[in-house]
Each structure stands twice: as structure tokens, then as C-alpha cells.
Amino acid sequence: MTEFLELETQDAVRMPWNVLPGSKSEAAQCVIPVSAIYTPLKPFPNTPTLPYAPLRCRSCRSVLNPFSIVDFSSTKIWICCFCLQRNHFPPSYQSISETNMPAELFPQYTTIEYESASEKAAMTNPVFLFVIDTCVIEEEIGYLKSSLLQVLGTLPENCLIGLITFGTYVHVHELGFGHIPKVYVFKGSKEVSKDQVLEQMGFFANKLKPTTGVIAGVRDGLSQESISRFLLPASECEFTLNSILEELQRDPWPVPADHRAARCTGTALSVASHLLGICVPGSGARIMAFLGGPSTEGPGAIVSKILSEPIRSHKDLDKDSAPLYHKAVKFYEGLSKQLVHQGHVLDVFACALEQTHPDASCKSLVMLLCRKQAFSCVALHFQPNRTKSPPET
């Protein structure tokens, strides 16, 4: 029993059987099915790290391991333990022998890590792109600014920060020019494409835009200077970002008494995903969206701006009587596929207890976003009911 506990401590794998059945009849006789519990984030202080890329099977792409069959003769081949494919060793392995084996063949190294030079060079700093809804009351903006200022003080200095605010229009703040506040504005009622973001935000203002290929990151023709205008290390943009947040106010566009605020959530999220896809594709980037109500403007809207039209309920969705539902689902499905392709995450932060008012929560939007695989984290921060309900806007 001690041996199995040691193996579990070494590999973070627990299985109900010590030996797997070798035939269908033996597998049918197993009362407990064959299964495994794997803990991928279990800390291993003594795990070796190899400074090169793993050697993979040319058929099933599995990695050379201690359970592979190795021929140390002049042919220098190894047989995959999963698909039994015969693979030749590359020239860098020609000096191996039974007394001179690479670390991945040691019996005690069943769990190891690889860190090749190319992968290490490609590693980037974490990216946080804040998307803030300004169609909320002044009191809530004050609480949000206070919380964000506290969060910015705890972030690592090397992480990249970006800021987008939205209401009737989408505002992308240029943090790399701290002398004068500089903002790029997009109309919230229209869907924005990647090419429009490239053109309107001046990514190729000083040089020709590539006519072929996908423009994504420094390796594909984008200069580091153009990226650093919108995504800066926290240590370099702290003063500019704090100044913008301290002066942040409610969306200035007037709202009639019988209308909801024009909240272009879908356009803001689309611009944010395009911006990350252009600047830092495939990196550890996350969009952190702070929403204060349902989307009413542009793509992804779930309710009209007319206050007399209530937000659709679950019964409306079941009866297929929500006119904006299918368009919103199509838009957010496309957005989620784009984020998955880019390797980015969207975190939605919202606040609601009940849908006591049509504009009192964005719960329906959050429920819609929760169904998409790219939206990995949805945080609902609950607060007690006020003695007096907020006025309809």
C-alpha cells in the first residue's frame, strides 16, 4: 500500500486498480470500472525541468517516457507504448546507451516538465484588459473606481494593462501617451471588424500594412511601439490609469425618462477581443468586463431601449417569443469562438439579487455568456437590497 501512495504523491494519479485488464472478458468482470483521478496542479517540488522540447511519436504524438521500448543498438529507435509505432531518435540522441540515458527514460521520472528555448522566448507577461460599463449610477461608479484602484496596486509590475470604457459609445484609452488623455471612439450601434480596429486605431500609421497573412502580434508585422500604446506594464501606466479612473464619470449622453440607457456591451466586448487578438494572440490575456445592466444597443443587445418593454423572461425563451434572443446568441457564439481561437478569457463581473426592475440587473446577459466555452469565469457580487430602489434610467 505504501508503494501506491508514493506513486500517487509522485504523479498525482489515483486509480482503483493496480493492474489494468488485458482482455475484454477481464474488463467485463471488473465490478469497479477502470478510471483515474488526475490532479494537474498538484505541486511537485522535486520535479525535474528539461531545457529542450519533448520527443513525440510521429503517429499519436505521445511523448517519450520510461514505459517506451528503446533499442540502444546502432539503429537507435524507440517504440511508442500507446500505438506501438517505431520512431527513430534525432541526431541529438545518438549518444544514448543503457548507461547513458536521457532523463525522460529514468524510471523515477514518470512526471517531468519541458521548457525549450523557443517556448521560453515566446512566453509573455499576463495581460488584463479592463472593460468598464459607465451606464450606472454615480454611487456604483464610485465603488467600482475604489475597487479597481485597490486591485491595480496589487498587480505585478510586469503585467500588461489596458482600459476600455463604454456606454453609448466605446472608448479605447491610449495609456502610452500620458501627457494628454487620448481616446479612440467607436459607435456602439454598429459591429466593428478587426480591419476597422487596425485602421482607426492607427496600428500602421507610419508604415505599410501587410497585404497578405494574418496580422497578429509582433511576429506578424506589428510594431512593439504600436502595441505599447494600448497595453503597458503596470509600473509604467500606473499614474495615467489612476488619473483616468479618478476622473471617470457616468455616460454623459442624455437618456429620456421612458428609455433605458444605450449600453453597447456587445460592441465593447468585440473591440476588446479584436484588440487582444491583434496585439497579444495566444498569450495569457483576459478581458475583465464590469457590467451594470443589460445590453440595449448594437450587436448582442438583449432588450430594447424602450422602458415599457420588459426584459424577456425564461418563459419567453421557452416559448421562443424573445425577438432579440437568437441574434444575441449568434453574436456571442461568434465572440466565444474568436476568444477560444485567440486563447483568451472573458471574465464577466455583474451585480444583481433579483430582476426587480427591467434594468436592475444584467443576469440574463450573464446567463447567455455563461453558456460559451470562452467565458470561463462569471463572478456575481451580491449586495443587500437598498431601502429605496434605484430610479429607472
Protein architecture, described:
- The chain has 11 helices and 15 strands.
- It has 393 residues and is of the alpha/beta class.
- The strands form 4 sheets. Strands 8, 9, 10, 11, 12, 13, 14 and 15 form an 8-stranded mixed β-sheet that branches.
- A hairpin with a 2-residue loop joins strand 9 and strand 10.
- It is elongated and about 80 Å long.
- The C terminus is likely disordered.
For the sheet with most strands, the description reads:
8 strands, mixed
Task: Tell me the total number of β-strands.
Answer: 15
Mean pLDDT across all residues, rounded?
80
Q: Which structural class do you get from the secondary structure elements?
A: alpha/beta
Number of helices: 11
Order of helices and strands: HEHEEEEEEHEHEEEHHEHHEHHEHE
Family: Belongs to the SEC23/SEC24 family. SEC23 subfamily.
Domain Sec23/Sec24 trunk: 125-356
Domain Zinc finger Sec23/Sec24-type: 54-93
Protein name: Protein transport protein SEC23
Tag the structure with descriptive keywords.
single chain; 393 residues; 11 helices; alpha/beta; disordered C terminus; eight-stranded mixed sheet; three-stranded antiparallel sheet; elongated
